[in-house]
């Protein structure tokens, strides 16, 4: 049974929409997914790009640091990498069963009446698999992902013609704002990456840094885990009907979270 509160969407909540990053925001990749991903990228660098095995780890780190992702870095350096091939190599073989259903998160998301959208650098297949494993895919109206930001990449053989576009590029954020049709000033953007949060701030989002106890400069909120939004950002649930609503909501949410974690 759904523990949906469905508060009416009033004018008092400062948010019309919530935009969530996926990896390390809605689930922790520390369960082993992150390590497997790193291994797959390193294997790709060795098997498909010819880097020596001993350098794969360093190359991966440098590409990520300088270009935001290994794929973006490889293409910027002139490697003719097909994004679909890359994604099926590095994501296709991930141990997705390590991602577990999260009924606590599901109940929380279902209690939020505003629009909810995913904005991830990952490819669509990965996003859908992870959301399916968490059992929260139907909580989101839309997935903005690698393919949304890079519609022309497959059409071009020249790697310099369409550079890979990803967060934290402002261009990527502008595509997301347009695709999601949101008013950034009335949108809460949640992400575990400090640079993404900073870019989100530039385009006008209200921002929450996930996975940290302390806010970065550009973050309006810090959430150690995403479900802490109940305590840290209770204004999400404000309906504007009366001033006590926010307190009621908080205790209602606490009890929802307390009961659902038992059956998880
Ligand atoms: Mg992330």
From TrEMBL:
It holds the Pfam family Hydrolase. Signal peptide: none annotated. It comes from the Eukaryota. NCBIfam families: Pyr-5-nucltdase (TIGR01993). This is Uncharacterized protein.
